[in-house]
Design brief:
By secondary structure, the protein is an alpha/beta fold. It is about 55% helix and about 10% strand.
């Protein structure tokens, strides 16, 4: 039988492929007039065929981070009136790039765009409302949520209560941290006032208090007071609520100084303030001097108790410039300068400065590990436990080679110490044990979250788990953990704890164990999100925008911090276009 002729080679041009306008929004591609090849607006490259797979592949491979680097949200914390500046810039660009009637048409269309301050306010309100609705919808689907809250004052001395929420987003398959709300506290900021504000916020967001499994605070009396504190009031309605002090705040409190160390630290701060803040002329002369002698830095740093890393940074800069500072002070004729010269020439005092600079640098390293978004309580607890073991190592090192104390080694040149710094470390070890000894999560529970296959004492694990999840059954947890440990496929999985418990572990096989894991991973490890959000708040409501209302401040903060994206197409479809005149 004669074989039939094979079909001719497929011609794409004859398939009448059509460029879809939504590709412009999704992948930043357009189809130039008279061309058959879509062009990327970001890099001006073209793809061969009008096909969704081609434009998507180009966007994902070459511009995958574009949405993250240039989001469409209003997260630049600029005033509402700044929108008009955009129109002015667009007009200048049109004047420079176009000529004749085309230029006039483009300028006319640009001027029709409504970008007034009132329009920016309305759009901010609409976008914030849409983002709030998305968050409320995601929270309703979440199995549990946790809260982190803190209180601070804005630039007009209004007390603001900021509350963050953390939950597992089923649709995205990841944990989400977002601003639950920002509310002004008028008058006092007592535990009762914060309680009423928080309860009202939960009502407005349609959240049942029993849905909240944990709450992280800064440990202030108004938060943790035994009778009228926020936590006490909440536990009266929700006895199973887990409440704890922010891990970062506790670590900072552990680093407080006393006796001779506090005295030396105070003297260093007074010396820095004398050189930097006592006289503008002296400050200028100091900077000029440091530049002339080619010092490593051209200025000193000021200490701020509110900033976590401030003390260590100030000491490190002071120690680096100590020789140059001594030379500069010798040229000063004031009595204070002579006192500070005597201090800097005192070997015993400078030994303490060297030791403090070394130990605060280690504490700052720990602090940096504890900071950051989307950390789990397991990550921070592991970092603190590791540092506690390091303190024992540091104590032994003081009696040996000073490997972990380079500045102290430089000051003493390996000779006998004037002070017994091991006593300082002994106290620091005890303070860490006291502050973190009563943390609600036990060692076996934390080990199970990190790697359930390493848990040997299953009975102790179930006992610790019941303390934070009283609804669970000890028998079920023990049985499910054994079944999980014998799963060979899961033993070979290499992934982080969040991915392991939310995607790898089958919920049907170990429902109680996975629910416990989900609750623990939902817990806020610290109030870092609140602290960083207050910095954003002060950028939004600065001295030039001091009349910003509390509601608009809340909306601007939500736009700047939320992980959700506004549904622009739906919002645009609901609005009518009004041209600017």
């Amino acid at each position: 039988m004669a074989c039939s002729k094979p079909d001719k080679k497929r011609k794409v041009d004859s398939e009448n492929r059509e460029f879809k306008t939504e590709w412009t929004d999704s992948y930043a591609f357009v189809l130039p007039v008279g061309s058959t090849k879509p062009m990327c607006l970001i890099c001006n490259e073209t793809v061969a065929i009008v096909k969704s797979g081609n434009v998507k592949r180009h966007y994902d491979s070459k511009h995958g981070h574009f949405d993250h680097n240039y989001p469409l949200k209003s997260e630049h914390k600029k005033p509402f009136s700044d929108s008009e500046i955009v129109k002015e810039c667009m007009n200048e660009i049109a004047i420079a790039l176009f000529e004749g009637t085309q230029k006039d048409d483009i300028i006319q269309k640009i001027n029709q765009i409504s970008l007034s301050d009132s329009t920016a306010v309305k759009r901010t309100e609409v976008l914030a409302e849409d983002l709030l609705d998305q968050m409320k919808s995601a929270i309703k689907k979440a199995k549990c949520i946790s809260l982190a809250l803190d209180e601070s004052t804005d630039n007009t001395d209004n007390a603001q209560l900021l509350v963050f929420v953390r939950f597992f987003d089923e649709e995205k398959g990841e944990f989400c941290e977002d601003v639950l709300g920002l509310t002004a506290l008028h008058g006092h900021t007592r535990g009762d006032d914060i309680y009423e504000a928080l309860i009202q916020m939960l009502r407005d967001r349609e959240i049942d208090l029993k849905h909240v499994i944990s709450i992280a605070t800064d440990g202030a009396p108004c938060m943790t007071g035994r009778e009228r504190g926020l936590v006490a009031r909440l536990r009266a309605h929700h006895p199973d609520l887990i409440a704890y002090h922010c891990i970062i705040h506790q670590m900072v409190l552990c680093a407080s100084l006393e006796e001779k160390y506090a005295e030396v630290m105070t003297t260093v701060m007074r010396l820095v303030n004398f050189l930097r803040a006592s006289s503008a002329l002296q400050h200028r002369l100091l900077r000029s001097f440091l530049t002339e002698v080619n010092a490593e830095f051209d200025d000193l740093l000021l200490h701020n108790n509110v900033r976590w890393l401030s003390k260590g940074k100030v000491l490190e800069r002071f120690w680096t410039l100590r020789k140059e500072l001594e030379t500069f002070l010798l040229d000063q004729k004031s009595a204070k300068a002579k006192q500070f010269v005597e201090f800097m020439q005192n070997e015993e005092k400078m030994e303490i400065v060297a030791f403090l600079s070394d130990i605060t640098s280690h504490l700052n390293d720990l602090n940096m590990k504890l900071q950051g978004k989307n950390n789990t309580v397991c990550n921070l607890t592991s970092a603190v436990c590791a540092f506690q073991k390091k303190l024992e190592l540091f104590k032994c090192d003081l009696q040996q080679d000073l490997l972990h104390f380079p500045k102290l080694l430089n000051q003493t040149a390996g000779t006998h110490h004037h002070h017994n710094h091991a006593e300082f470390l002994d106290k620091l070890i005890k303070i860490f044990q006291t502050r973190f000894g009563d943390f609600p999560l036990g060692k076996q529970v934390l080990l199970c979250m990190e790697n359930p296959f390493l848990v040997k004492n299953i009975a102790e694990f179930s006992t610790e788990a019941l303390k934070i999840c009283p609804w669970a059954s000890a028998a079920s947890l023990q049985s499910e953990l054994i079944e999980l440990q014998e799963n060979l496929a899961l033993q070979e999985s290499l992934c982080d704890p969040t991915t392991f418990w939310t995607k790898m572990v089958p919920a049907a096989g170990v429902p109680s164990l996975q629910k416990v894991a989900l609750q623990i991973l939902t817990m806020f490890p610290s109030t870092y999100c609140c602290e960083s959000a207050f910095s954003t708040m002060n950028m939004v409501k600065n001295k030039y925008r001091s009349t910003l209302s509390n509601e608009h401040l809340h909306q601007c903060l939500r736009l700047a911090l939320t992980p959700f994206m506004p549904k622009f197409k739906e919002l645009v479809a609901q609005k009518r276009c009004h041209f600017s005149h």
